[in-house]
Every structure is written in structure tokens, then in C-alpha cells.
Amino acid sequence: MKTTILIFVLFLFNSVLNAQDGYGPHRGRLKKSGNYQIELVGCANYLEVYLFDTDTQVIDNSSIIGNIIFIYDSKSSLSKPLVHYGLDGFTAQMPTNTFLYCKPSFNINGIIITAKFENECQINASKTN
Question: Is 84 buried (19+), middle (13-18) or exposed (0-12) by CB count in 10 A?
Fold first, then answer.
């Protein structure tokens, strides 16, 4: 009986850790995209973006290219390249923090992986005012 309860608790804990739209290992928002997960971190000057497999294991960034699009409204957007950051991350300089949402995209052997992230910095700032 104790073994069954322990297995159930471990399964539940693992499910929570690997939730589709939860938080990643760097405490950023985590979004699922196909067989990958994308984590977005940062509110000041630079954003960090991390790419994981479905089990939240890091993926070597050496052969991956990417960009991020900042969407301001229905008529304006700005695209920035994602630069390799360490062995498994990417970074981009953030323009003014007034964008509505952003979409990091990666090209992995011809497969495009992308996800939409709301501007949580702007949302959190409006909650404190």
C-alpha cells in the first residue's frame, strides 16, 4: 500500500514539473511546441530563451539558429536574432518593454519551433500600479 501511494505521489510530482505551460528550470514561462519546450526569462534589457525536449532536458544550441519577434500592435513588430548564450541558451536584446507579446522561433534541422509569450513584465508592472 505504501509503495502504491509513493508511486502515485512521484507520478503526480513529475506531471506537475512537466506541465505544458508552467515554469521552467530558469523560473521563466515554459511553453510546449511540438516535441520541444521553450522557456522565456527576463524583463530588463535582454531576454534569455532556452530550448528543451519534452522531458525538459536541455538541447545543445550549437547547430540551432533562431530569432524573436516582438509584437507591439496589429501594425508594428520588430525582429531580433537569438544569439547563442552558453551551451544551451539564447539571448536577444529587448527593445522597449511595451510589446504585447513575443514569439521566439528556432530552426532545428529545417523544422521551425515557435511559441507565443505574453509580455508578463508589462502585465506584472500594471498590477503594482
Answer: middle
pLDDT per residue, tens digit, the chain (129 aa), is 555 443 443 443 444 444 446 999 999 999 999 999 999 999 888 999 999 999 999 999 999 999 999 999 878 999 999 999 999 999 999 888 889 999 999 999 999 999 999 998 876 555 555
The answer to the question of residue 12 being in a domain is: no
Q: Range of 84's domain? A: 21-128
Whether 4 maps to a domain, the answer reads no
> What is the C-alpha separation between 17 and 32, in angstroms, rounded?
13
Residue 3 lies in a domain: no
State CA 27 to chain mean position distance: 10
- Residue 43: CATH number of its domain: 2.60.40.2480
Host H or E run for residue 103: strand 101-108
